[in-house]
RNA sequence: GCCCUCUUAGCUUAGUGGUAAAGCAGCGGUAUCGUAAACCGCAAACGUCAGUUCGAUUCUGACAGAGGGCUCCA
């Protein structure tokens, strides 16, 4: 196994090989960038008017293999901007990059394996012919030049390259395995959710099994929030335009909102976020300093106009329900305490759900590149950032600071989790808002009966949205949910129809114990019943035949094991209830 | 939204310029079986709208939906 740096060099070198092969096959094609990425590399091309697709891969791969033996080593050179412009005069992408790097004071470097000169940042293998033999082209995609929708759409070819054939095969196998966990695939197979063309893309229809999981997660969230002193509220899904003018969302957020509707001469929006509604609840009455901090929580459903191409099962949708809450703080001390407690809550959730692969980002504003994106109040920003850093320090949570990702009204902690398929996405966001108090004129009476503006509001959603979170859980558990979440917790399997009466007795006993239990009373073979229960990933199977009936017992099988032998129903019931109560992950 | 690919029964797939095959699921029977698929039968589909054609599920186009991607820099 090579280390990551070596794998990066391998992928990056292979991108050059791909570029050379493509340029040989389609003269006139310009190659743009070709970096290594996790598990491989990509190379962007401008094919002009030529269209290629995955059917061309064998041809390209063959060409690569033909070129590879001639690449025994790379030769490097430093060039001047003028030289670079001459060398790459036919390639506008390279020229743009060269000019930019020269301006940024970076050295301009080129490499050449003998027959293919390229502008390059370095990082290659020493002997390509020898080291680069195990590659495979994976997919083709469109990608904007420099990632901006305003630029030209280039053609991106993804590939992977490994030191040995074994590692290449292993990677391909791993990808196949990952696909089996895809939330869309399992969502269908386990009957968790569906998306109807007639209802619309990105709008989730929760099936009975999925609804059980959703409601269990919701119930758990409500319990935790109750323990942390939150009060629950409920607000409507639409609102008049004026509220978003007041909040400041309209100019910053319009592109993400569904178009408004007219009603009784007023414009109404389907809400893309809950905050302004909650602030209206704050304003319901005169507030006293004694009430603080005020914590309002709501599972609030919002709708956002996500681009159609970005939708992804439960992971990216147009309607979702956030595990939202707003904490109104009257001073800095409360802000720190509440932030620390919110971070603690995250860790508790992640422990319960068994989520280990995550990191926390401290999203800061970028006043240089995106000046117009933020409330213009530098001292307030500075102070807010200080408070977040302080809270992170107390929590002993490692945060990665990232400029440019802040909300328009404040900096935030974003928790990013990684699905087994390798998709990384924001799981939760915790924002420190120093602007809305003033905008909404949220006031309270202080000790001296003086009216004050709420200085800080914490927006937090540790579970993110139920849609995305459950989408993540589906992939995380590969559909085998911990028993407290499993739609069906126990299945009773009678061996013959003779055993139906006893099976019913067992079934009813489990129901009385408030377990989610099903009785498979079909006239099927035991093997078939077991197979179906396994496919449904039911945690416990209780098998009852003549022997169990005679002994007044049940034969136990779990989804992860073979036959566990007989046990009394009381014993197994209490074992199951215990696992549910403790939210055990098996 | 943009680039490429795709759309056949509830699901997974086969196939054709003369309206289509199968497995699983479903329904009706038969079998009553000991830890991952019993047997027989029945019913059920070419995404939508145009165009080409004697004739289109098949070819072309548009639309809709789905899938792989879209600043990890030379």
Automatic annotation (TrEMBL):
<dbReference type="InterPro" id="IPR018163">
    <property type="entry name" value="Thr/Ala-tRNA-synth_IIc_edit"/>
</dbReference>
<dbReference type="GO" id="GO:0000049">
    <property type="term" value="F:tRNA binding"/>
</dbReference>
<keyword id="KW-0862">Zinc</keyword>
<keyword id="KW-0648">Protein biosynthesis</keyword>
<keyword id="KW-0030">Aminoacyl-tRNA synthetase</keyword>
<dbReference type="InterPro" id="IPR006195">
    <property type="entry name" value="aa-tRNA-synth_II"/>
</dbReference>
<dbReference type="InterPro" id="IPR004154">
    <property type="entry name" value="Anticodon-bd"/>
</dbReference>
<keyword id="KW-0436">Ligase</keyword>
<dbReference type="InterPro" id="IPR002314">
    <property type="entry name" value="aa-tRNA-synt_IIb"/>
</dbReference>
<dbReference type="GO" id="GO:0006435">
    <property type="term" value="P:threonyl-tRNA aminoacylation"/>
</dbReference>
<dbReference type="GO" id="GO:0004829">
    <property type="term" value="F:threonine-tRNA ligase activity"/>
</dbReference>
<feature type="domain" description="Aminoacyl-transfer RNA synthetases class-II family profile">
    <location>
        <begin position="184"/>
        <end position="482"/>
    </location>
</feature>
<dbReference type="InterPro" id="IPR036621">
    <property type="entry name" value="Anticodon-bd_dom_sf"/>
</dbReference>
<feature type="binding site">
    <location>
        <position position="459"/>
    </location>
    <ligand>
        <name>Zn(2+)</name>
    </ligand>
</feature>
<dbReference type="Pfam" id="PF03129">
    <property type="entry name" value="HGTP_anticodon"/>
</dbReference>
<keyword id="KW-0820">tRNA-binding</keyword>
<dbReference type="InterPro" id="IPR002320">
    <property type="entry name" value="Thr-tRNA-ligase_IIa"/>
</dbReference>
<keyword id="KW-0694">RNA-binding</keyword>
<feature type="binding site">
    <location>
        <position position="326"/>
    </location>
    <ligand>
        <name>Zn(2+)</name>
    </ligand>
</feature>
<comment type="similarity">
    <text>Belongs to the class-II aminoacyl-tRNA synthetase family.</text>
</comment>
<feature type="binding site">
    <location>
        <position position="275"/>
    </location>
    <ligand>
        <name>Zn(2+)</name>
    </ligand>
</feature>
<dbReference type="GO" id="GO:0046872">
    <property type="term" value="F:metal ion binding"/>
</dbReference>
<keyword id="KW-0547">Nucleotide-binding</keyword>
<comment type="subunit">
    <text>Homodimer.</text>
</comment>
<keyword id="KW-0963">Cytoplasm</keyword>
<dbReference type="InterPro" id="IPR012947">
    <property type="entry name" value="tRNA_SAD"/>
</dbReference>
<dbReference type="GO" id="GO:0005737">
    <property type="term" value="C:cytoplasm"/>
</dbReference>
<dbReference type="GO" id="GO:0005524">
    <property type="term" value="F:ATP binding"/>
</dbReference>
<dbReference type="InterPro" id="IPR033728">
    <property type="entry name" value="ThrRS_core"/>
</dbReference>
<dbReference type="InterPro" id="IPR045864">
    <property type="entry name" value="aa-tRNA-synth_II/BPL/LPL"/>
</dbReference>
<dbReference type="InterPro" id="IPR047246">
    <property type="entry name" value="ThrRS_anticodon"/>
</dbReference>
<keyword id="KW-0067">ATP-binding</keyword>
<dbReference type="Pfam" id="PF00587">
    <property type="entry name" value="tRNA-synt_2b"/>
</dbReference>
<keyword id="KW-0479">Metal-binding</keyword>
<protein>
    <recommendedName>
        <fullName>Threonine--tRNA ligase</fullName>
        <ecNumber>6.1.1.3</ecNumber>
    </recommendedName>
</protein>
């Amino acid at each position: 196994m090579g280390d990551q740096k070596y794998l990066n060099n391998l992928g990056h070198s292979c991108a050059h090989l791909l570029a050379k092969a493509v340029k040989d096959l389609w003269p006139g094609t310009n190659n743009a960038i070709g970096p290594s990425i996790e598990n491989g590399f990509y190379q962007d091309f401008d094919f002009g008017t030529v269209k290629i697709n995955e059917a061309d891969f064998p041809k390209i791969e063959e060409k690569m293999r033909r070129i590879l033996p001639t690449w025994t080593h790379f030769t490097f050179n430093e060039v001047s901007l003028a030289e670079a412009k001459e060398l790459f005069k036919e390639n506008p992408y390279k020229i743009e990059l060269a000019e930019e790097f020269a301006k940024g004071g970076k050295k301009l470097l080129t490499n050449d394996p003998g027959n293919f000169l390229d502008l390059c940042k370095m990082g290659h293998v020493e002997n390509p012919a020898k080291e680069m033999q195990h590659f495979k082209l994976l997919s083709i995609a469109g990608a904007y030049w420099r990632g901006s929708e305003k630029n030209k759409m280039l053609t991106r070819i993804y590939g992977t390259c490994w030191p040995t054939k074994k590692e290449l095969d292993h990677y391909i196998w791993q990808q196949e395995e990952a696909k089996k966990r895809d939330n869309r695939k399992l969502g269908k197979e386990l009957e968790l959710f569906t998306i109807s063309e007639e209802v619309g893309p990105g709008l989730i229809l929760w099936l009975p099994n999925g609804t059980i999981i959703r409601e269990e997660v919701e119930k758990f969230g409500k319990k935790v929030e109750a323990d942390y002193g939150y009060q629950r509220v409920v607000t409507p899904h639409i609102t008049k335009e004026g509220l978003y003018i007041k909040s400041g969302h309209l100019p910053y957020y319009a592109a993400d909102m569904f178009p408004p509707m007219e009603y009784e001469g007023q414009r109404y929006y389907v809400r893309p976020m809950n905050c302004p509604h909650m602030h209206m609840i704050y304003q319901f009455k005169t507030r006293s300093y004694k009430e603080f901090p005020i914590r309002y929580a709501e599972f609030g459903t919002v709708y956002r106009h996500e681009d159609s191409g970005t939708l992804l099962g439960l992971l990216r949708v147009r309607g979702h329900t956030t595990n939202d809450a707003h904490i109104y703080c009257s001073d800095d001390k409360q802000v720190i305490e509440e932030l620390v407690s919110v971070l603690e809550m995250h860790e508790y959730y992640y422990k319960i759900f068994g989520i280990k692969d995550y990191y926390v980002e401290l999203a800061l504003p970028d006043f240089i590149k995106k000046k117009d994106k933020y409330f213009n109040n530098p001292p307030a920003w500075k102070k807010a950032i200080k408070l977040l850093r302080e809270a992170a320090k107390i929590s002993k949570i490692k945060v990665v600071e990232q400029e440019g990702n802040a909300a328009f009204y404040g900096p935030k902690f974003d928790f990013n989790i990684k699905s087994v398929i390798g998709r990384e996405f924001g799981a939760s966001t915790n924002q420190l808002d120093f602007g809305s108090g003033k905008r909404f004129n949220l006031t309270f009476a202080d000790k001296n009966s003086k009216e004050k503006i709420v200085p800080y509001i914490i927006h937090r959603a540790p579970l993110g949205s139920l849609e995305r979170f459950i989408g993540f859980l589906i992939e995380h558990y590969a559909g085998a949910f911990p028993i407290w979440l499993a739609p069906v917790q126990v299945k009773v399997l009678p061996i013959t129809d003779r055993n139906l009466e006893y099976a019913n007795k067992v079934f009813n006993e489990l129901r009385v114990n408030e377990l989610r239990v099903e009785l498979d009373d079909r006239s099927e073979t035991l093997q078939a019943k077991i197979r179906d229960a396994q496919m449904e990933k039911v945690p416990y199977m209780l098998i009852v035949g003549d022997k169990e009936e005679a002994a007044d017992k049940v034969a136990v099988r779990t989804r992860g094991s073979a036959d566990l032998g007989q046990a009394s129903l009381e014993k197994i019931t209490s074992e199951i209830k215990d696992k549910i109560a403790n939210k055990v992950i098996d």
